[in-house]
Amino acid sequence: MAKYRKENRDKILATRRKYSKKYYAKNRDRIAILHKVWGKTYRLKNKEKIAAYMNSYWHSTHKAKRIKANAAIKRCVMEHYGGGAAQCAHCNINDIDVLTIDHIHNNGAEERKKGPAGGISFYVLLRKNNFPPGYQVLCLNCNLKKEILRRRSD
Ligand SMILES: [Zn+2]
In percent, how much of the chain has pLDDT > 90? Predict the structure, then answer.
């Protein structure tokens, strides 16, 4: 058996890769939920370790860099969905700190179950997926107003 495995290593790996890909495609939603749960468990279990890391030298020296990089990603996403300029689709405010990405068809809650909850990982995902349609830029005020109107009409 060991000999067979040694001689057919590539073949075995290819088969394994093929099946895990299939499995992943079939169970994508389930896996996403599992990852979320695992992440939560890990964070709960390793609270001190994570806190120590957050206070570490490495983390603090890279903080500024990270903030800058994240701001660039956010600006890139906002400019794309704002039609060239990072501004609210309703009131045209262009203060990037108050701008958010809005799900035009109000399916945000549904999507958040599947993927990142929001914030930078959401922006990264949008950029990675080549800016899928169905989103617009709204400021926090207009976003809230839209939600109020939606609840009122339900
Ligand atoms: Zn607005």
Answer: 48
**How far apart (Å, rounded) are the C-alpha atoms in residues 38 and 50?**
15
pLDDT digits (tens, 9 = 90+) for 57-106: 877 888 888 899 999 999 999 999 999 999 999 999 999 999 999 998 87
Dihedrals phi, psi of 27, to nearest 5 degrees: -115, 25
CA–centroid distance, residue 97 to ligand 1 (Å) = 12
CA of 34 to the centre of ligand 1 (A): 36
Distance, CA 94 to ligand 1 centroid (Å)? 9
Q: Where are the domains of the chain?
A: 1-54, 66-154
Give residue 116's pLDDT: 65
CA of 99 to the centre of ligand 1 (A): 8
